[in-house]
Structure formats: structure tokens, C-alpha cells
Amino acid sequence: MPKDKKRSRVKNEDQYEALVEKGYSKEKAARIANSPNSGKKGGKASNYEERSKKELYEKAKEIDIEGRSKMNKKELISALRNN
Predict the structure, then answer these.
(1) In 31, 35, 39, 68, which residue has its Cα 20 to 30 A from 15's Cα atom?
(2) Model-level pTM?
(3) Where are the alpha helices (DSSP H) in the chain?
(4) pLDDT mean across residues, the chain
(5) Three-state DSSP class for 52?
(6) Can you give the pLDDT at residue 13?
């Protein structure tokens, strides 16, 4: 598959390119650039500490963090921040 076809699936191309240039892996950059809030600013998302364990689990599920079902709230926060 040509490179352009593969990258056409990225919703926010500018953000993707900026993240790759910062050293993010292509997979992580694409995941971030394809998120529903891609490119939006304003810091309106609540801090992970303010979210319930269930909310954190759902977010971890959304981005496919392995082992999430056995994690406590603190571990989920760490995994989300480091993924």
C-alpha cells in the first residue's frame, strides 16, 4: 500500500506530523491525531485524578491498553499517561 494511502486515514495530518517530529512513534501519533478531540485546545478535559476508575478503564479500553482489567485507579492513570 502506498504511503499516501495509509496516511490518508489520519484525521489531523498537521498534528500527526508534529508528533512524529517530536519523536512519537507513528502508531501513537496516529492514535492521538485520530482522537475525537484532535487539534482542539482549551484544556477542558478533566484531570485523570478527577475521573472515576470506571471512566479511566473505559478510556484505557478505547486506546487498547493491555492488562487494564487488573489495574487499580493509580495504575490506570499511569498507563494512560505513558501510552
Answers:
(1) 68
(2) 0.50
(3) 3-7, 13-22, 26-33, 53-62, 73-82
(4) 81
(5) coil
(6) 84
